[in-house]
UniProtKB/TrEMBL annotation:
The keyword Ligase belongs to this UniProt entry's keyword annotation: no
InterPro entries the record matches: ABC1_dom, ADCK_kinase, Kinase-like_dom_sf
Taxonomic superkingdom: Eukaryota
Record's keyword annotation contains DNA damage: no
Name by which UniProt lists this protein: ABC1 atypical kinase-like domain-containing protein
Protein family (similarity comment): Belongs to the protein kinase superfamily. ADCK protein kinase family.
Gene name linked to the record: Acey_s0031.g2386
């Protein structure tokens, strides 16, 4: 049986692992020296039994190697004692092997069976699509139907494949624009409602053992039985808490909830068994990617294993809800909603499998564009209000990128809520007008509504809901967060500045510096020339205000994909967020000038 050898140097406890990993039983100090371990016969030697590896463990081999290397030795003894107890240890190793072998065999058989069944299930979904693709790609009438079937197959395949499709929609440097646009549909929530069965267990996990039994009825005024929101990894439930009772039960004060007697909260709970499903699917995807590269070496330039490793890192961060909770707390520190107009839910408690946060009311921001004729939204459609909303989103994103270096990596209209007249009594320099009780004043307000004359935001508020024009953006779902290295951040600023200064060739060179493997680029000089032509064409506008940044970056991504310039995933996430926010901002305000907003950040370069 293999063992690890550790040599302890005094009190520092420095461990040196022998790479050959031989059995150390019965070896002399000279033989230890031959193995590269210097020691004194009287010096203490540590003998560590390796942690048993269970075949059902789907942990990535690299993670398994690190966890084994950092495991604590089970047994320590001197060299002399080690030799004296050699027969006992050998006998013990035989017993351990005898006991664990049937367990290894049983677990290995079960994992093998699960993988076979899962592969068969996936084959039933995707093999018919692969067979019919040549026909669907040639017949336009079948093409849309084929893509609909692809999306349905992905949605029915579980969280790993849904997240894989969502991740693929952000890698416009690898996949075509049409493919990414279709995969972006997977960002919408399509799962059915679930019943809140594990409520007591979740509360005990977050607030401590026995909380549900002793304090649930006092703290929770109401808990809705069914989920109000659903994703592929977690379900969201709604409840109402009594804030003073919550503070008494937990022994904590929540300054953010001060002034509230009752407060609506959202409870986000990870799906049961989601991590096991993801581990199984990832092991299948890794084996499939390796097999694909061996069968078709021409696909090697795509580096599917490296791309899959990036996706796995993103997915595992989303499965652990602690990452999302910490990101929410960080964003709340970075954005004071009274000054910036940007708000994030307040985290009350969290664990690996659950987050309890404040429930934020509002409507999805895309309603302002998709439902322009809605009479309930007519009061929100004044150009000044729409322009202010667009500027709020643009400035928030620029602050995330260039000031905080902490960027929401999943910014799309489905993750942004909007509401009006937020905390009007607390805004500096703003007074609240009394209600309009006089008939004359009501008539004046009616005429103003008819002619479309609006009071400027942050100047005057009334209790009339149609005049509550101060917007607040609420950003949700912070499971994906991007932080650039200092070098990448400088290059990103330089890229935007090169575009502004019409230095297209330099912009192409900067894109190559962001490439994970620039050697795959077929012709770097030709690539830079084409980027130069693209920038020159786009910048031949009368002003930067008329420059469509989303279209420019989209065409640039097409060039990147055509020349096999695969960019760093964090860089593509940031650029995609810029494209999404700029595109949506222009739908609200066609004159939105993102470069004008970014000018203070771009000019402040070392």
């Amino acid at each position: 049986m293999e063992r690890d050898v550790y040599h302890r140097e005094g009190k520092r406890g420095i461990a040196r692992r022998n790479t050959n990993r031989p059995c150390v039983m019965g070896l002399t100090p000279f033989e230890f020296k031959q193995m590269g371990v210097t020691c004194n016969p009287s010096a203490p030697m540590g003998v560590a039994w390796p942690r048993p590896f269970f075949p059902h463990d789907d942990t990535h081999p690299m993670e398994r190697k690190e966890s084994t290397a950092s495991s604590t030795p089970i047994m320590h003894m001197s060299t002399e004692t080690m030799f004296l107890q050699k027969p006992i240890l050998e006998k013990r190793s035989i017993v351990i092997n005898f006991v664990y072998f049937p367990w290894y065999l049983l677990c290995g058989s079960w994992v093998c069976l699960r993988r076979i069944l899962r592969c068969f299930s996936l084959a039933l979904r995707f093999v018919p699509l692969a067979v019919t693709y040549p026909l669907a790609s040639r017949v336009n009438t079948l093409n849309e139907l084929w893509w609909t079937c692809v999306l349905l197959a992905i949605q029915s395949s579980g969280p790993t494949f849904i997240k894989l499709g969502q991740w693929a929609s952000t890698r416009r440097d690898i996949f075509s624009k049409g493919f990414c646009d279709r995969m972006s549909i997977l960002h919408t929530k399509t799962r059915k409602q679930r019943h809140f069965r594990d409520c007591d267990a979740v509360l005990d996990e977050v607030f401590g053992e026995g909380f549900a039994k002793n304090h649930k009825n006092d703290v929770f005024v109401q808990i809705e039985p069914n989920s109000i929101g659903s994703g592929c990894i977690a379900q969201v439930y709604k409840a109402t808490v009594n804030v003073p009772a919550l503070e008494r039960a937990t022994g904590r004060r929540f300054p953010q909830l001060e002034g509230h007697v009752e407060r609506e909260i959202a409870i986000k709970v990870a799906e049961r068994g989601v991590e096991e499903k993801i581990n199984l699917d990832l092991s299948i995807l890794r084996n499939g990617a390796s097999l694909m590269v061996k069968i078709m070496p021409s696909l090697g330039y795509l580096e599917p294993l490296a791309a899959l490793a990036q996706f796995e890192m993103v997915l595992r961060r989303q499965v652990d809800l602690r990452n999302e909770a910490r990101a929410l707390q960080k964003f709340s520190e970075n954005f004071d909603h009274k000054k910036t107009g940007i708000k994030f839910p307040i985290v009350i408690g969290y664990t690996k499998n659950a987050i309890i946060e404040t429930f934020e009311h509002g409507m999805y921001i895309n309603r302002l564009v998709s439902e322009e004729n809605d009479p309930q939204l007519a009061a929100r459609q004044s150009p000044r209000v729409r322009r202010r909303i667009a500027l709020l989103g643009a400035r928030a994103l620029l602050k995330m990128i260039f000031v905080d270096n902490f960027v929401h990596g999943d910014l799309h209209p489905g993750n942004i809520l909007i509401r009006f007249n937020e905390d009007r009594e607390q805004l500096p320099g703003v007074h609240a007008a009394p209600p309009k009780d006089r008939i004359f004043e009501r008539c004046i307000e009616f005429v103003r509504d008819l002619i479309g004359w609006r009071a400027a935001p942050r100047v005057r508020f009334t209790d009339s809901p149609e005049l509550a024009d101060e917007p607040t953006l609420i950003m949700l779902d912070t499971g994906i967060v991007v932080s650039e290295t200092e070098k990448n951040l400088r290059n990103l600023k330089a890229l935007f500045r090169a575009i502004v200064e019409k230095q297209g060739y330099k912009a192409g060179e900067l894109l190559l510096t962001h490439a994970e493997n620039s050697r795959n680029c077929r012709d770097p000089h030709e690539f830079c020339l084409q980027v130069d032509q693209l920038v020159s064409k786009a910048m031949n506008k009368r002003s930067l205000r008329s420059l469509n940044i989303s279209a420019l970056l989209s065409e640039m991504f097409s060039l990147v994909a055509a020349h096999r310039v695969y960019l760093d995933s964090s860089f593509t996430s940031v650029v995609l967020s810029v494209m999404v926010l700029e595109g949506f901002g222009r739908s609200l305000d066609p004159d939105l000038d993102l470069f004008q907003c970014a000018r203070p950040y771009l000019l402040n370069m070392v």
